[in-house]
Write a structure and sequence with these properties.
Elements lengths: L2 E2 L1 H14 L4 E9 L3 E9 L7 E5 L2 E5 L4 H4 L3 E7 L2 E7 L5 E2 L6 E2 L1
Parallel strand pairs: 1-6, 2-5
Antiparallel strand pairs: 2-3, 4-5, 6-7, 8-9
């Protein structure tokens, strides 16, 4: 199961509204970085047949089958810290992350 905090859901909903199209957020992982894996996010216009779809605070989150074992149970939050803003990932499967925070290891 993938969940969004209320702040993250509001951010995604506002962005989709401004964008004028889209049905949700795609969340997955890719192999990269010094720790092995990195999160990837993109807005979804059309889902894929093999996607797992989760809904949280009215926002649909699409996850491909290969990514799900690495991110199952993750909560996405959206935070502003000073001049920076972005998604924060609370992944219970993560064992370690690199010093720059861009990649993680399971």
């Amino acid at each position: 199961m993938i969940t969004l905090t209320e702040k993250a859901a509001k951010h995604v909903s506002r962005y989709l509204e401004r964008r004028g199209k889209g049905i949700g957020l795609r969340f997955g992982v890719r192999t990269t970085g010094c720790s092995g894996m990195a999160y990837k996010l993109e807005y979804v216009d059309n889902g894929e047949a093999e996607d797992q779809v989760f809904e949280s605070h009215g926002v649909k989150v699409f996850v491909d089958a290969k990514s799900l074992p690495y991110i199952d149970g993750t909560e996405l939050d959206f935070a502003r810290e000073g001049l920076n803003e972005g998604f924060k990932f609370r992944n219970p499967n993560m064992k370690d992350e690199c010093g720059c925070g861009e990649s993680f290891r399971i």
